[in-house]
Task: inverse folding
């Protein structure tokens, strides 16, 4: 087991990051103080808008982190905010993986950015597929695939595009067998029947949990992703990130949204209910071979001819995601849960396709 004393973050870090002197922004030094600010070359007169955005935003987004911390039960020191969770994924590669030398493990079919980010950073990807049909982790194979160049293992739960949750026992086994960092991507956690593994951060110093404002929170346009981890790891994120990676408007809007958590909770309940209804209705259609169970705000559906149905729906301006070329998802479409009316339109269209 990788206990706190055995975990050595320093030995995982890229040497250039260990030695890096981070950029110190003007606002870092005079945070929260009153004064005449002539230190950051801003426009001192204001903005040509009804609200002023002439000042750089808080580089550490403390106001927003305090609000998030209350919801998640975490101190601000354990929270990193990125320009979407995609930024957090990219920072993990830049912090821990030496290009052309280190490796990561991913478990396809899964979220595409892990591999894209690895490729951008010239980091080798070892793929250990999920088990067919159940889409559970093949934890024995994952552990076998680890070598002394493996720095990161990505686990997505609930997984995109399959929609299922993976077993805690498998995640635990990986956490306890690996000296590197395990990233648990909980982008869709709010739609799941189980709880976030945030409390496990106290037990596993090598765990990083990703969440986002893009899904249940309905704020994909603001681009705010969250990473939760030990202070030691969050400090590394902060050292690497661009100084003002979350703009002032996004920070303000997210703070306002956090005061309206009741609305989000109502939507989550509605989306989950609509998901179950959609699964039931899809299951009755003759062109549907299988609807996979889902813990997310989408469903993966195996159909008789995915390309044909995809094209049929597109012609009616019903846009779903064709995953039929993805290994283990052959013949599948991924469908996001829409509003009641949108889901009804979708079902009507698929029925028409099946009956023609
Ligand atoms: N993780 C998963 C599993 C996702 O599906 C997505 C987006 N589709 C992301 C992360 C990225 O989210 P963000 O908008 O926060 O960059």
Result:
């Amino acid at each position: 087991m990788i206990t706190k004393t055995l975990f050595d973050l320093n030995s995982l870090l890229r040497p250039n990051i260990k030695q890096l002197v981070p950029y110190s922004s003007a606002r870092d030094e005079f945070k929260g103080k009153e004064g005449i600010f002539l230190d950051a070359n801003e426009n001192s007169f204001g903005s040509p808008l009804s609200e002023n955005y002439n000042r750089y935003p808080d580089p550490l987004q403390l106001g927003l982190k305090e609000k998030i911390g209350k919801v998640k039960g975490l101190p601000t020191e354990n929270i990193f905010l990125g320009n979407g969770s995609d930024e957090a994924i990219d920072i993990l590669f830049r912090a821990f993986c030496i290009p052309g030398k280190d490796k990561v493990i991913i478990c396809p079919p899964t979220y595409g950015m892990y591999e894209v980010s690895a490729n951008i950073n010239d980091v080798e990807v070892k793929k250990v597929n999920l088990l067919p049909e159940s889409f559970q982790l093949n934890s024995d194979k994952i552990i076998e695939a680890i070598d002394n160049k493996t720095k990161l293992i990505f686990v997505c739960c609930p997984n995109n595009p399959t929609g299922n949750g993976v077993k805690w026992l498998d995640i635990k086994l990986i956490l306890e067998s690996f000296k590197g960092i395990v990233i648990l991507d909980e982008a869709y956690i709010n739609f799941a029947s189980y709880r976030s593994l945030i409390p496990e951060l106290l037990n596993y110093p090598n765990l990083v949990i990703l969440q986002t404002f893009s899904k249940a929170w309905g704020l994909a346009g603001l681009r705010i992703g969250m990473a939760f981890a030990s202070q030691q790891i969050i400090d590394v994120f902060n050292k690497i990130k661009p100084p003002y990676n979350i703009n002032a408007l996004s920070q303000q809007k997210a703070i306002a949204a956090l005061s309206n958590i009741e609305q989000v909770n109502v939507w989550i309940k509605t989306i989950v209910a609509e998901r179950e209804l959609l699964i039931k209705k899809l299951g009755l259609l003759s062109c549907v071979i299988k609807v996979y169970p889902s813990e997310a705000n989408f469903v993966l559906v195996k159909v008789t001819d995915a390309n044909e149905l995809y094209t049929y729906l597109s012609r009616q301006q019903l846009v779903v995601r064709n995953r039929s070329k993805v290994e283990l998802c052959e013949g599948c479409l991924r469908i996001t849960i829409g509003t009641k009316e949108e889901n009804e339109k979708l079902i009507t269209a698929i029925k028409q396709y099946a009956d023609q």
